[in-house]
Write the structure tokens for this entry.
Amino acid sequence: MTTPVETIEKDKECPARQPGCMMTRRTFLMTGSAAAVSVSTISLSLFPGSAVQAEVVTYPRRRIARLSELNDDEPVDFNYPDSGANSAAMLVKMGGIKGGGGIGPRGDVVAFSYVCSHQGGPLQGQYKVAGNHRVLGQCPLHLSTFDLTRHGIVVSGQAYESLPQVLLELDGDDIHAVGIMGLLYGRAQNVIDSREG
């Protein structure tokens, strides 16, 4: 054990920022990477066969609208993936403005959760059109706004996650919801496995 006096003497020998006394970023990263590999190797050897198998839970396929019945920039409300809490969603044809994940001849039909990803604020009635921009927001809680043309990314406000996007399929004239990209606010998982209940 070193005494405070010995520590002071050692510090005098190796003043701060002297090349021989400092650890470089490269050395630090190499040391940290080696330690991480060692820990993961140890944990794998201590618990053989402990790999977790991934489970796939399928979303319901639900018809939500007909393409021919949609009007430009008029949202259609629906619930997905179930009728439970935080499942309110909207489908909108964005007037020829192509959206990420959009379907239809012009790629302008998209669907998103109506529940803000920040603290679950309601976004019903907050669809806005400004030139070529299509946004959902501002959230009444903390003013978050989401860009519907770019997979619901955050434009402004306190949210730090994109708005969950409902994945769509077009079958003839029928529009089907088939999944969700992102996690709905307030849920540990979007869909409960039907084998559990």
Notes: Helices lie at 4-13, 25-46. Strands lie at 62-66, 76-79, 88-93, 109-113, 127-130, 133-137, 145-147, 153-156, 165-171, 174-181. Residues 37-44 have pLDDT under 50 and may be disordered. Residues 62-181 form a domain with the Rieske Iron-sulfur Protein fold (CATH 2.102.10.10).
